[in-house]
Amino acid sequence: TILNAIIIALTIHVTVPILPQPESFFGSILMASSGIILVGIGSSMYLTSNLGPGPRDGWMTGLQRVTGVPIGRVRITLEVSVLIIGVILGGTFGFGTILFAVAIGPVVATCLSIAGRIGST
Q: By the 8 A CB rule, do 39 and 104 touch?
């Protein structure tokens, strides 16, 4: 759980300076969508490794276990709630923030389903 936060921070610190900046809105959407898919794949990989979830994923899996609500819906609810709180506190957001908030839940759910099928073979 602690390594999750450290590794993500270091990865962002190293990769942001070398990633190209998209020159069009379509390029931005393509890059954001690719990132969401990669986050979904990464989340499913480390959640199924049983080494402990990160804070938000721990909250997500705990709420899913307690409520029985599908994991994708739980994740959307968490992300949209955090987005609203951030806006209330004066944080900035854009189209990519909203896209992430509504898309990451279904992507994580799909990737977890695929990882479960791969792990059970």
A: yes
Task: Quick: pLDDT tens for 22-61.
Answer: 999 999 999 999 999 999 999 999 888 888 888 888 899 9
Question: How far apart, in whole angstroms, are the C-alpha atoms of residue 30 and residue 102?
Answer: 16
Name the CA radius of gyration of the chain, rounded.
15
Helix (H, G, I), strand (E, B) or coil at 50: coil
Where is 79: in which H helix or E strand? helix 71-88
User: Contact at 8 Å (CB) between 78 and 61?
Assistant: no
H or E element at residue 15: helix 2-15
Contact indicator for 5, 54 with CB cutoff of 8 Å: yes
On whether the CB atoms of residues 79 and 104 are closer than 8 A, the answer is yes
